[in-house]
Design goal:
Blueprint: H1 11-20, E1 22-28, H2 32-43, E2 48-51, E3 67-68, H3 80-96, E4 101-111, H4 118-132, E5 141-144, H5 145-151, E6 160-171, H6 173-186, E7 190-192, E8 195-203, E9 206-214, E10 220-230, H7 236-242, E11 251-262, E12 271-275, E13 281-287, E14 290-294, E15 298-299, H8 311-324, E16 335-346, E17 360-364, E18 370-374, H9 380-399, H10 420-437, H11 442-452, H12 456-468, H13 477-489, H14 495-502, H15 505-508, H16 510-528, H17 532-548
Parallel strand pairs: 1-2, 1-10, 2-7, 4-12, 10-18
Antiparallel strand pairs: 3-6, 4-6, 5-6, 8-9, 9-10, 11-14, 11-15, 11-16, 12-13, 13-14, 17-18
Helix pairs in contact: 2-6, 2-9, 3-4, 10-11, 12-13, 16-17
Length: 556
């Protein structure tokens, strides 16, 4: 199969082409769940297309704690099966994309009278190592109180007994999603953002096509498929209503908030997983000169597209920070940016948000619509395998079509062909030298290799093009090259797509966004031919996010 375009300037043409084709599978939802399904389907040889009504990853998949983790706390709930499965997936996600996933040593402090004693922590972490099949170099150790404070001096020292020390993995959830999508597209699948599935067409009671509305042009398209998969995360029940199959189990949405604080105000050296006064768990993670802390977990009943950080969410996290790191005395004025996400959990009678299981389930409706509900970022590949196995079985029964078995376990995602995790350090060094050889400053070349992995060659090409252009852009290379790359190779269609989900700058480098937002918007408007009204709308969208960042005034 040929490669479809993944360029934002060819979106509409691509939609027109797609409407003329017939697909083995249409995937609805471009978060990590849908992206994983698209890749698995494409690798097995299925003709597959994915639609997202917003930008890719604009739902929960850009709003998580950004950890690829086994879910240590689920041991307390005795969910051994899930810890074992998700725990093992951590290493696979890392191996297949070392440029978007990094091992992070995590500290779990134990206090007199706290939830975790030294013995139970030591045992729990040992069980975790065993269940998740953790490699020897990453197995847990136990630290004494003085060793703990040496590694993280900001921790409360009163009553400190020591800590458990173990490895989790840090990721960029939105970039992980986009790299999975890019790999799927390079293998013949198609993916379109700002394309909402607004209806289904049925024949003999079976769904045979989706009506897709292009949110940019307003035009509708009919896309025919043998199987449709509902991977819309917090929206799955809405799609089931459209399919008239919302019966039995339903979702329970819960909101989780994170706050970002400048590293100079909270100079955390070390990621910490700590318990809150009300018996929950929270992460504090240092990243790119900032520290982010979260999360809350409260029942959510409003629009999943716009979860907001409330004053009480913010205060809850600030209190937890000041309780565990008493010297920092954080106030609302220290919050640089924040984000809120909605967990698509499967409702369980009588359980509080934190007690509800994070497991995933596949439901199939009488119309043939396959829905995947629940789950975690970390388990996306395995969830995709389960769903695509089901799709393949139905295509075999109903259409006598045969497809290969799942083979994503050892498949690098886009940018991940760097010689595995073991080869990544050398890869970064060599490609940085290559960048310097091509005239780039070493730190910029290195930053690009770290972020884009084995796709960095394309950024080097774009840099050379940018330098030799007759009318060079007014933007410096560090901005224009990632911007062009995001537009041509990652379907970024608006400034928020670029500043939030392609670069993460809206969360971790807000000064950079403020510096370049006007010229980035002008550049995108000229390349994509926006109308005045579109430009105003996209600029307002970005300004709203910038205000909401430190935004005490805009909190509800
Ligand atoms: P989403 O990412 O929400 O994607 C669904 C997509 O469907 C959306 O982009 C939406 O626009 C689209 N859509 C909806 N309706 C339509 C339609 N009609 N047509 C077209 N498209 C449509 N997991 C971890 O493993 N590690 C963590 O550290 C972690 N932390 C978390 C912290 C918080 C606060 C939250 C909320 C979750 C966390 N999770 C974590 C869980 C993880 O983020 C989610 O399980 C995962 O992102 C869900 O992905 P998804 O693709 O199912 O849903």
């Amino acid at each position: 199969m040929g490669r479809h375009s993944f360029s934002s300037s060819r979106r509409e043409q691509l939609l027109q082409e797609i409407a003329k084709e017939r697909f083995d599978v249409v995937v609805i939802g471009g978060g990590i769940t849908g992206a994983g399904i698209l890749l698995d389907a494409a690798v097995r040889g299925m003709k597959a297309v994915l639609f997202d009504m917003q930008d890719f990853a604009a739902g929960t998949s850009s709003r998580s704690t950004k950890l690829v983790h086994g879910g240590l706390r689920y041991l307390k709930q005795l969910e051994f099966g899930m810890v074992a499965e998700v725990g093992k997936e951590r290493a696979i996600v890392y191996e297949n994309g070392p440029h978007v996933t990094t091992p992070e040593w995590m500290m779990l402090p134990c206090y007199k009278g706290g939830t975790f004693g030294m013995i139970s922590t030591s045992l729990g972490l040992r069980v975790y190592d065993f269940l998740a099949g953790v490699k020897v170099s990453e197995r847990r150790s136990m630290l004494k109180a003085n060793e703990t404070l040496m590694k993280e001096p900001l921790l409360k020292s009163e009553g400190l007994l020591g800590s458990g020390y173990y490895v989790e993995y840090r990721t960029d959830d939105a970039r992980l999603t986009i790299e999975v999508l890019k790999e799927a597209v390079s293998r013949g699948a198609a993916a379109i953002n700002y394309a909402e599935v607004i209806g289904f067409t049925c024949e003999n009671g079976k769904v045979v096509a989706a009506t897709v509305q292009d949110k940019v042009s307003g035009k509708n398209y009919e896309v025919a498929a043998s199987k449709l998969v509902n991977a819309t995360g917090p929206w799955v029940d809405g799609l089931r209503e459209m399919d008239r199959s919302k019966r039995g189990k339903v979702l329970q949405l819960t909101k989780g908030v994170h706050l970002v604080i400048d590293g100079r105000r909270m100079p955390l050296r070390q990621a910490v997983y700590f318990d809150t006064p009300d018996g929950r768990m929270m992460f504090a993670v240092p990243r790119e000169g900032k520290t982010y802390v979260g999360t809350t977990d409260t029942v959510y009943k409003d629009d999943p597209a716009h979860p907001a950080v409330s004053v009480s969410d913010q205060q809850y996290i600030i209190d937890a920070i000041n309780g565990m790191f008493p010297g920092v005395a954080i106030t609302a004025n220290d919050i640089e940016s924040s984000w809120a996400g909605v967990r698509p959990l499967i409702y369980e009678e009588g359980k509080s948000p934190s007690e509800i299981s994070r497991k995933d389930e596949v439901w199939e409706s009488p119309s043939g619509l396959i829905t995947i509900a629940g789950g975690k970022l970390t388990g996306y590949r395995k969830m995709a395998e389960t769903v695509v196995d089901r799709v393949a079985a139905r295509l075999r029964e109903e259409k006598a079509l045969e497809f290969a078995n799942c083979s994503t376990k050892r498949l690098p995602i886009s940018g991940g062909s760097v010689g595995g995790s073991a080869g990544f350090t050398d890869y970064v060094a060599n490609q940085t030298l290559e960048g310097v050889r091509r005239g780039l400053p070493g730190d910029l070349a290195e930053a690009w290799v770290l972020k884009y992995g084995s796709n960095v060659g394309r950024l080097f090409e774009l840099a050379e093009e940018a330098v030799s252009e007759h009318h060079p852009s007014e933007l410096p290379l560090e901005v224009v090259v990632p911007l062009k790359y995001a537009m041509i190779e990652e379907m970024a269609a608006t400034p928020v797509d670029f500043f939030h989900r392609r670069t993460g700058a809206l969360l971790f480098n807000i000064a950079w966004v403020r510096e370049w937002k006007v010229r980035v918007s002008q550049y995108m408007a000229s390349v994509l031919g926006w109308t005045e009204q579109q430009k105003r709308q996209y600029d307002e969208e970005l300004d709203l996010m910038l205000q909401a960042a430190p935004g005490q005034e805009t909190l509800q």
